Give the backbone structure.
Amino acid sequence: MDTQFYNKIIRNFLNPIIELIDNPEVNEIMINGHDDIWNEINGQIKKTDYKFKSEDDLFSAVNNIAQFVGKQINPKKPIMEARLPDGSRVHAILPPCSRKGICLAIRKFSKEALTIKKLIGFNALNQDMNGFLKVCINIRKNIIVSGGTSSGKTSLLNAISNFIPNNERIIVIEDSSELQLQQDHLVLLETKEPDRHGKDGVSIRDLLSSTLRLTPNRIVIGELRGPEAFDLLQAMNTGHNGSMGTLHANSPMDGLARFETLTLLAGVPLSLDAIRRQIASSVNIIIQTSRYSDGTRKISNISEVLPLDKDGNYHVKDIFVFNQKEIDNKGKVIGSFEATGYQPTFYEIGDKK
């Protein structure tokens, strides 16, 4: 990418908010019209005094970003998703779809990856949970990280992925590159959007299909959003143990239901019961991430997925949970990580490792 062009042109159009872009403490910039600009710092969202001179100036910024990344945004195509050269993600929506003016969100990319050590320091999990997840990855359990928007799914996946042994061939598939694995043998794949005629796009499903022919030891998918869930399920069922991915859901049970829904989008001629049984036998661990009222992000559950119950429903058992006890007078969430006492079915395997 021509970062020099970006610095001279794009940053010039974004000059009204350049201080927010350059501030390392700002995680996200949210623009709801040219004079209504908010930012997120340490999980807290606050309105700023920054503003563009007019909607035209804001549109010029959005349009130049679109041109820079080879996309279009106009009244006929009023929604754009893009990635800046520094890795930051941009999402824009034009009026009349956005009623208050141009809506622009910039989620900044952290140049320094969040490690497990740092996440423990932020109280996102504790040492016992860390040790358990390390064992799960070493014994090649299939793991899904489930959570709501901006709950820390990708950061957690990035951190635990680094438990994968360095001598393994890891294929990473993402819509936009965010994961920062440190192993030596990495194959990094990224989707490609269709051209303006709707042709020549490359989806996660396309990449996953190719991945199975590239002899991977592990498959890591940044986010499951569609029918590629079925292909990952087949990979998990055909010897690609230790695979990982994220999806949007509010609880471990919801995560399994979401996985099921995405699998059904593939239109495969399998009964619902057959799909559920495959999911229950393939997904071993669900890690639930949550964003709390004080803006902090934590692992709220680490759960084992068990075989379906006698009624054909999903069955999960919590191994670790975060127990929220109170909110202090400063709005801080007070609680503790607790082991439930449940012993996972693969405990003896992990103990031998």
In short: The chain has eleven helices and 15 strands. The chain has two domains: 3-107, 116-352.
